UniProtKB/TrEMBL annotation:
The chain crosses the membrane at residues 15-35, 55-72, 92-112, 146-166, 187-210, 230-252, 264-287, 321-338, 350-368, 402-422, 448-470, 476-497. Its main location: membrane. One of its GO terms (cellular component) is plasma membrane. It is a multi-pass membrane protein. It comes from Arenibacter certesii. Belongs to the BCCT transporter (TC 2.A.15) family. GO terms for molecular function: transmembrane transporter activity. This is Transporter.
Length: 680
């Protein structure tokens, strides 16, 4: 899209129009018929959660162990960009923006609510208070820990790799390039991006809707607003979306980056305050014990489907499966944003940071707020927080009332939620525009602002009609197909990484080892000439045959018997030295073909290419090792190469540990008899 004027619309019609039609139709149904739409979508969602929950479980497991593998593998040092790329953002700014996009509002909304709801859940009522408190912390860690960030990590890594390493657009379609090649630019690519755009808008809309409810409740708690009526929700949405649009049009490196950095500082200050005025010793000890409990329970939690505890299944569907579906549904949006800020990092650094740093902070945050709330509930509030555990909109503010300076801390919570709201919305606006324009960098500011306006309108319509729940169900339903898409991302990424690693680690051809400056023009001619079959057959029947014949004659002087074998399909000649006890030594050369890519035929600076198939002489060996082209060898160079392999063969024969490789099954009994003879 280079050269497009700043005032020209950059939207891609094939993506934008179908996406807007589906978004508006779904929003209208949820707004006009919230109950009916909600019932239908809930029925579909419940069917998926009950009957297909194993897809979510296995998908998340695959994501986790795949990322663990990458960290430990040879691919870990590959950069997300050129080999000389450096990160665009400082480590602090990068991590701060990860939080802003990932689960910022969720931390504020559920840091007290989730532990309290696990603590008071009827399904765990038979357990004692200490066990319920420990399990409340464990399950909160589970839902906000490595599993959640592994989902984001797979999408973010795939997008970063194909965007900055393969120079493809920052688009989900790019992640299928190794599988679909240029077909990603057609209908299938549009379908993938339409799915991503709709999923992003639905996910942001519902999350921001719940964020508005919590902000409104907080302002009522502080006596800023008299009630939580729709009028005040309109004011909140308009002010915050306007701020998000302003931040989005200033770009990632300015608005989003600055707001994220400010917010992370305020978040840490609030965290330290609650840690200091709360049950500090208990919190530090429970965090330490909780980490150990999480690590020791990791595998069990990861694979647990509660199949043998049917009474726990409703809780499992409403929490674990809902969370996996929720994080997966958010993955297109968060993945695109993470990719947008991650150029220049290595795969190992990216995965380690995305999995461990946000997870560790989440654990600290959830321990401080969740365990403090449980302690307050049992030791100070006489169960008052347990009584309102089902009302997360006000639970955080009710908890803070039992701590000093509750007015200031409540204000800080609202401030943090507002910043998270703005950073989530502005990064969402940037991502939606990026998807809808195929990653154009020339979008006009008005176009970016229109995405913010669409978010605000849909949020308000659904807040007023009570349709947020229906839209949330739609978002969770979309997670099922996207989990399959993410597995295909992994397949595509593995295929690309193998090619990448082989490309940058490909050594010079073995035939170049013996090159000297003599006859360099002949070597150049051989390099740029793409041979046909008859030329290679002629090379084998002359140069190769002459080399083997001369070597056979010299071997006979040392009383070493050898023979030359010729075969027709494929045409090949080999020299073979026979042995009675050990495997024969064999070095052969055969005619081998390879297909040339179509684009090479159009390359003007390679005049030797005129067919889609080229042939070369490939060496092969008696022990089935991988051969290589011997096209550039002269007769004497080929003899030297055979001698190198014969010397290797004789050296291996002298080491008894190699006997299983240097002898066949038919020779093993002969070897045993020889050993027995010498021993006797």
């Amino acid at each position: 899209m280079e050269g497009i004027p700043n005032n020209k619309i950059t939207l891609n019609k094939g993506i934008t129009i179908p996406s807007l039609v589906f978004i508006l139709l779904t929003s209208l149904l949820a707004g006009l018929f919230p109950l009916e739409t909600g019932v239908i979508l809930d029925h579909i969602k419940n069917f998926i959660f009950v009957n297909l929950n194993w897809i979510y479980v296995w998908s998340v497991n695959i994501f986790i162990f795949f990322l663990f593998y990458l960290v430990l593998s040879k691919y870990g040092n590959i950069k997300l960009g050129n080999n000389d790329s450096i990160p665009q953002h400082s480590y602090f700014s990068w991590i701060a923006m990860l939080f802003a996009a990932g689960m910022g509002i969720g931390l504020m909304y559920f840091s007290v609510a989730e532990p309290m709801q696990h603590y008071t859940a009827p399904v765990f009522a038979a357990e004692d208070a200490i066990t319920r408190a420990k399990n409340a912390q464990l399950y909160t860690f589970f839902h906000y820990g490595i599993h959640a960030w592994a989902i984001y990590g797979v999408v973010g890594l795939s997008l970063s790799y194909f965007t900055y390493r393969y120079k493809l657009p920052l688009s989900l379609r790019s992640c299928f390039y190794p599988l679909l090649k240029d077909r990603i630019n057609g209908v299938w690519g549009n379908v993938i991006d339409i799915f991503a755009l709709c999923s992003t808008l639905f996910g942001i809309t519902t999350t921001l809707g719940f964020g508005v409810l919590q902000i409104n409740s907080g302002l009522v708690n502080m006596n800023v607003f008299p009630d939580t009526s729709f009028t005040y929700q309109v004011i909140i949405v308009c002010v915050l979306v306007a701020a998000a649009i302003l931040s989005a049009v200033t770009g990632v490196s300015k608005g989003i980056k600055i707001l994220s950095s400010i917010n992370i500082v305020v978040v840490v200050l609030l965290l330290l305050f609650v840690l200091a005025v709360g049950p500090t010793t208990l919190l530090i000890g429970s965090f330490t014990e909780g980490i150990g409990y999480y690590i020791s329970s990791f595998i069990e939690l990861t694979f647990n489907t509660h199949a043998y505890k049917t009474d726990e299944l409703p809780w499992f569907y409403d929490w674990t499966i809902l969370y996996w579906a929720w994080w997966i549904s958010w993955a297109p949006y968060v993945g695109v944003f993470i990719a947008k800020i991650s150029k220049g990092r290595t795969i190992r650094g990216f995965v380690a940071a995305v999995l461990l740093i946000p997870t560790t902070f989440n654990f600290i945050w959830m321990t401080v707020f969740g365990n403090s709330a449980i302690w307050v509930d049992s030791a100070v509030a006489n169960g008052a927080l347990s009584n309102i555990a089902g009302n997360p909109d006000v639970l955080m503010f009710s908890f803070l009332e039992y701590l000093p300076l509750s007015g200031i801390t409540s204000f800080l919570v609202i401030f943090i939620i507002i910043i998270f709201f703005v950073t989530s919305a502005d990064s969402g606006i940037v991502v939606m525009d990026s998807i809808a324009t195929k990653n154009s960098t020339k979008s006009p500011k008005l176009q970016i602002a229109l995405w913010g306006g669409l978010l605000a309108i849909i949020s308000l319509v659904l807040l007023n009609a009570g349709g947020l729940g229906a839209l949330q169900s739609m978002t969770l339903i979309t997670a099922l197909p996207f989990s399959i898409i993410m597995i295909l991302f992994i397949v595509s990424l593995v295929k690309a990484l193998r090619i990448d690693y082989k490309y940058y680690n490909r050594d010079f051809s073995a035939t170049t080892d013996l090159w000297s400056s003599d006859s360099w023009e002949d070597k150049l001619k051989q390099i740029v000439t793409f041979k046909n079959k008859s030329a290679i057959d002629n090379f084998i029947s002359t140069t190769v045959k002459e080399a083997f014949t001369e070597m056979k004659e010299v071997l006979s002087k040392y009383e070493i018997t050898s023979k030359i074998n010729a075969h027709q399909s494929p045409y090949r000649i080999e020299i073979e030295i026979e042995h009675h006890i050990l495997n024969n030594f064999k070095y052969g050369v055969k005619t081998q073909s390879r297909n040339l890519p179509e684009y090479l035929l159009e390359e003007q600076n390679l005049p030797g290419v005129n067919k889609d198939e080229s042939f070369f002489p490939l060496s092969y060996f008696g022990d089935t090792r991988e051969g290589y082209s011997v096209l550039y060898f002269s007769k004497n160079e080929l003899i030297i190469d055979v001698l190198k392999h014969y010397e290797r063969y004789l050296k291996l024969l002298t080491e008894e540990k190699n006997v299983m490789f240097t002898s066949s099954n038919s020779h093993h009994e002969k070897i045993k008899k020889v050993k027995k003879k010498f021993k006797s």
